[in-house]
Amino acid sequence: MRKLTAGEKRRSGCPLNASVEILGDRWSLLIIRDMMLRGFRTYKEFLGSYEQIATNILADRLRNLEKHGIIATEEDPSDGRKVNYVLTKKGIDLAPVLTEMVLWAGGHEKTENQALVQLMRKDKEAFLAEIRARWENGSGKKK
Amino acid sequence: MRKLTAGEKRRSGCPLNASVEILGDRWSLLIIRDMMLRGFRTYKEFLGSYEQIATNILADRLRNLEKHGIIATEEDPSDGRKVNYVLTKKGIDLAPVLTEMVLWAGGHEKTENQALVQLMRKDKEAFLAEIRARWENGSGKKK
DNA sequence: CCACATTACTTGCAAAACGCAAGTGAAAAA
DNA sequence: TTTTTCACTTGCGTTTTGCAAGTAATGTGG
Description:
The structure is a homodimer.
Chain A: H1 15-23, H2 28-38, H3 43-47, H4 55-67, E1 71-75, E2 83-87, H5 89-92, H6 95-108, H7 114-122, H8 124-136
Antiparallel strand pairs in A: 1-2
Chain A binds a DNA duplex through helix 3 and helix 4.
């Protein structure tokens, strides 16, 4: 559990408020999604995602997620220009949050990717177990 | 499932993106929390909540939640000044999302109300069933 | 019945966040 | 060695947020 750094003050001690202060914007969870579900790791990959985040916002969000210990950076051993972003344990633990948000919208809004929704709905625990397994062995990539 | 009204365009069809576009701000989920967990129903009660939302933001967020069919308004039979806000089925269905966000922050951030976190952790399904039951019989209030 | 209180807002304005377009510097590729 | 790629930063206009104050409708006490 990280401490709050100097300037930070929470509006309240409520756990939901903490989540909302850290993740409550239009981009942070989409970045997590791209890492968790699509195996994205680089700035360029995030920029290529369908929702078209702006470059400065992406840089800001990555900084923020790292500051909160949700992602970490690694330098690419084979390419000095690249920065690889990876989920930490804290980041992987957001899988149930993402899942419930997908299920909620999948059931109440007109959305695509109903295949994913069906998969999650059919066996939520198996789905979560697979994500955890993928990240436990380092890569975050599908086998 | 509601249709998108004229001016609205989703950045993508991803269900997570839909959730984030509807609920991804610093206040909407706190309002849902106050309704779901504390039985709040009026503008004044929301204003009195610990996080101190501004009056114009509250009005805007309530409008938005109603527009998305997450809450509904009822006029108070005994007091013509009051407007009672209640969760719809779609709103109640956000309970798992709230729960997972509470559990995540409860486990990874320094927060208060660990009693709630423990309760959710110990038997998540029972907790969700109780919330649904409370709202099924109309009131949303604890017995 | 009349003054005052309460409820649910709206309005105005300053500050912060967001988003687009363009630019930069370091490393790799041609 | 020139060009391309990658991960950003900077400038600037627009939108959102947040504070303070105001308003209209309804209810209450004397």
